[in-house]
């Protein structure tokens, strides 16, 4: 093949070297506009997985890198004049300059044509004259921009400001310095890369950056290689204590906004993107160099394995895209956490450290228990102490009081519509469904959305609380749960609004009924989606009737004996559609501004609060984002939550979306938890009320991690409980927890031990005389302590 590479960074150079190794007959040319000696940045970090791949592909490169690595396993988190050290992580870093020199030398040895200080020919010329054109030209890729219609780039510039610096202080571990200044919270990401220096990245929110006066040079255009010395002088002053007399080193250092780069496609004909041109991931979880070199490995292998170029490029993207997207999801969670770091400034150092470590959701409490058991135990102990609890236990099995209601644990069976009622009356199915979840160990079991009127049902199979038969049936179910378990039961009240009169879920979710339909109502005459019924715009008299229906249903819920009531103001149902500008386009006092859109939902909530017993908790479920352009955002959700808190809510149940069919949710593990987190920090904790996290939380480890980090107070799980009604009890068994928070009822107690699934007679022999004793330095705590020598000749 004849290969053109635009960009002489690690990814492009490594790809060139790999291709020449696979077949010396390949003609490989690299164009790099900067000089060979121009190196921007300080250190680069690699994972053991990446290093293993490099070792398999090129032993020469791997051997040199391994001899230059700084290796360590500790993370030091400096916060509020305390240092929390967490071990067992595993890092390897080296100088970016040394890495580039190595790769340049390797390319020269193998016969790659390197053309530094040279602009590449026009890409059209390269496409015509080469079999493959590799665009490794970075985050500001000109080739990606030229073929934007094919690549479909999505560039997301973030609000935080950061500057890539170095220091001659040699850190012993990965360092997070989180400093509350008079201007706001600033942070340092630091790590060693040699026996001579460390990377020192300064980051802060743009508001903090402006308050500190760093915007003084915002309009200055710095030539390549020139650093913002005025800003660097201020950084030296602000972080003098952390630098401890060491120097700050600059290298083309200036303020930047991190841009997350995504592309719909990575190839256009024989042109393919690699590294930052194709994708970026925030520096707080890894290295762009790592991703680029992994790309190079995969692309070279695919070209070698496939019969033709088109198949090879398709295989490359198919192989790498899932890995990159997984990394980007974690990076997105991490960068958003650092953008909001100021909201955690009042946390205790132990909780803050745990929160920081678990920010991307890739590290959890169980991970930390394996990596550093002492720290994991410290976190559990601190959580218990902070809650005023005597027993140290998994966080999910610590009791919680919401309003005046004490729950034995923090697990909730989330409301799930079953579409199995007859004339709104719950029957034996609901008794078995909810009863089994209560017997399965959850602290609180929630009903499905119980409709406040016949016309307020979603489907003909939805339950209600608008007549005596329904009340009596619910009372029987509540009585069974109270009589047979220690669980509490809550009712969720709602009105379907414009999503009313649709088919049962398994017959066509959100699709209109073929017959027997009834008229839907909404704040505006706007359908939920294509093919949906167009609702009639509700008038003031009907709004009063809906409010009266909520009040009547609330009184019936109290008579039925429910322990907690939740008002459903999420998922595009009537109250939710009033809150959202997607569904509410009224011109009266109930539409327009958020204050106006809140007016009717708050009016209903106030009426429910007055009708519901004061000693029983009242919560509200909201959609924290519409996932639709022009709809509600998290900023709006904070104000919505604040309004309900001010009107007496005891808890905010934080969900998202389902406002309109055109939504585009960013699904993923625990994907709604960041919304609950922000509402808890800004609204619920100051108000002394609860926040419930829900959405793709499926493991006890995730549940514990969310609670320990202070992102929520209670965890609601839906589908998980359909898969395993006794999920909570099984989680207790797996964590070896025994106590009142997870008691098996007497009838089931014989099954509380997990049945054996393999040999039970494999008794292992003792093969050592004595147990191993710990070394002075625990294997979980490896710190970078380079051996210094005064002899320059030996250093060479």
TrEMBL record:
Residues 770-796 are annotated as: Disordered. It holds the Pfam family Oxidored_FMN. InterPro entries: Aldolase_TIM, FAD-bd, FAD/NAD-bd_sf, OxRdtase_FMN_N, YqjM-like. It comes from the Bacteria. Residues 2-328 form the FAD-binding domain. Residues 396-733 form the NADH:flavin oxidoreductase/NADH oxidase N-terminal domain. NCBIfam families: PRK08255.1. PANTHER family: BLR3436 PROTEIN, NADPH DEHYDROGENASE C23G7.10C-RELATED. This is Salicylyl-CoA 5-hydroxylase. It comes from Arthrobacter mangrovi.
């Amino acid at each position: 093949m004849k290969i053109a590479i635009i960009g002489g960074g690690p990814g492009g150079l490594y790809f060139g070297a790999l291709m020449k190794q696979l077949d010396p007959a390949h003609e490989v040319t690299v164009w790099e506009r900067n000089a060979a000696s121009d190196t921007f940045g300080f250190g680069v970090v690699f994972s053991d997985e990446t290093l293993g791949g490099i070792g398999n592909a090129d032993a020469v490169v791997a051997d040199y890198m391994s001899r230059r690595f700084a290796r360590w396993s500790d993370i030091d988190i400096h916060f509020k004049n305390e240092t929390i050290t967490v071990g067992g992580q595993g890092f390897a870093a080296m100088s970016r300059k040394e890495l580039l020199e190595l790769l340049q030398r390797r390319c020269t040895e193998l016969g790659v044509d390197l053309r530094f200080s040279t602009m590449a020919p026009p890409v059209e010329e390269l496409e015509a004259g080469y079999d493959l054109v590799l665009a490794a030209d970075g985050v500001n890729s000109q080739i990606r921009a030229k073929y934007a219609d094919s690549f479909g780039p999505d560039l997301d510039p973030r609000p935080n400001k950061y500057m890539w610096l170095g220091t001659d202080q040699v850190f012993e571990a990965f360092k997070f310095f989180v400093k509350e200044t008079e201007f706001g919270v600033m942070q340092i990401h630091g790590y060693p890369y040699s026996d001579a220096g460390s990377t020192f990245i300064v980051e802060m929110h743009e508001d903090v950056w402006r308050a500190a006066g760093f915007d003084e040079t915002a309009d200055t255009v710095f030539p390549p290689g020139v650093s913002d010395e005025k800003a660097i002088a201020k950084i030296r002053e602000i972080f003098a204590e952390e630098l401890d007399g060491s120097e700050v080193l600059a290298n083309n250092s200036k303020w930047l906004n991190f841009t997350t780069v995504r592309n719909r496609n990575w190839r256009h004909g024989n042109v393919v993107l690699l590294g930052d041109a194709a994708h970026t991931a925030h520096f707080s979880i890894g290295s762009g160099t790592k991703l680029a070199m992994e790309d190079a490995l995969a692309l070279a292998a695919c070209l070698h394995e496939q019969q033709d170029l088109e198949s090879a490029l398709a295989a490359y993207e198919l192989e790498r895209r899932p890995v990159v997207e997984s990394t980007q999801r974690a990076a997105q969670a991490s960068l958003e956490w650092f953008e909001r770091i100021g909201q955690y400034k009042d946390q205790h150092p132990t909780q803050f450290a745990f929160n920081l470590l678990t920010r991307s959701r890739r590290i959890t409490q169980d991970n930390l228990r394996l990596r550093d058991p002492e720290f994991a135990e410290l976190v559990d102990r601190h959580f218990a102490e902070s809650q005023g609890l005597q027993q140290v236990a998994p966080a999910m099995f610590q009791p919680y009081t919401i309003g005046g209601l004490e729950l034995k644990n923090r697990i909730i069976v989330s409301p799930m519509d079953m579409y199995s009622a007859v004339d709104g009356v719950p029957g034996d199915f609901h008794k078995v469904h909810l009863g089994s979840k209560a017997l399965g160990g959850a602290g609180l079991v929630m009903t499905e959305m119980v409709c406040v009127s016949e016309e307020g049902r979603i489907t003909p199979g939805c339950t209600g609380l608008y007549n005596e038969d329904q009340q009596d049936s619910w009372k029987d179910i509540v009585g069974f749960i109270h009589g047979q378990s220690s669980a509490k039961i809550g009712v969720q009240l709602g009105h379907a609004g414009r999503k009313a009169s649709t088919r049962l879920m398994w017959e066509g979710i959100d699709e209109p009924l073929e017959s027997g339909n009834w008229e839907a109502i909404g704040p505006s005459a706007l359908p939920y989606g294509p093919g949906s019924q167009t609702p009639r715009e509700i008038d003031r008299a009907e709004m009063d009737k809906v409010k009266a229906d909520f009040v009547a249903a609330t009184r019936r819920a109290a008579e039925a004996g429910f322990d907690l009531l939740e008002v459903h103001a999420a998922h595009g149902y009537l109250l939710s559609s009033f809150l959202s500008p997607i569904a509410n386009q009224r011109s009266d006092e109930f539409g327009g501004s958020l204050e106006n859109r809140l007016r009717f939902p708050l009016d209903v909530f106030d009426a429910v609060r007055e009708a519901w017993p004061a000693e029983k908790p009242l919560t509200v479920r909201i959609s924290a984002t519409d996932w639709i352009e022009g709809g509600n955002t998290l900023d709006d959700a904070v104000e919505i939550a604040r309004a309900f808190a001010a009107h007496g809510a005891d808890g905010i149940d934080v969900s998202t979306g389902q406002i309109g069919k055109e939504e585009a949710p960013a699904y993923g593990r625990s994907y709604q938890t960041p919304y609950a987190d922000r509402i808890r920090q800004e609204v619920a904790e100051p108000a002394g009320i609860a926040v419930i996290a829900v959405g793709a939380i499926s493991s006890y480890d995730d549940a514990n991690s969310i609670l320990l980090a202070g992102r929520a107070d209670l965890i609601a799980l839906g589908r998980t409980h359909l898969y395993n009604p006794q999920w909570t009890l099984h989680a207790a068994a797996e964590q070896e927890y025994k106590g009142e928070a997870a008691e098996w009822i007497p009838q089931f107690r014989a099954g509380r031990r997990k049945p054996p699934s393999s040999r039970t007679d494999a008794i292992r022999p003792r093969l050592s005389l004595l147990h191993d004793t710990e070394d002075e330095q625990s294997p979980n705590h490896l710190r970078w302590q380079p051996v210094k020598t005064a002899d320059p000749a030996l250093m060479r």
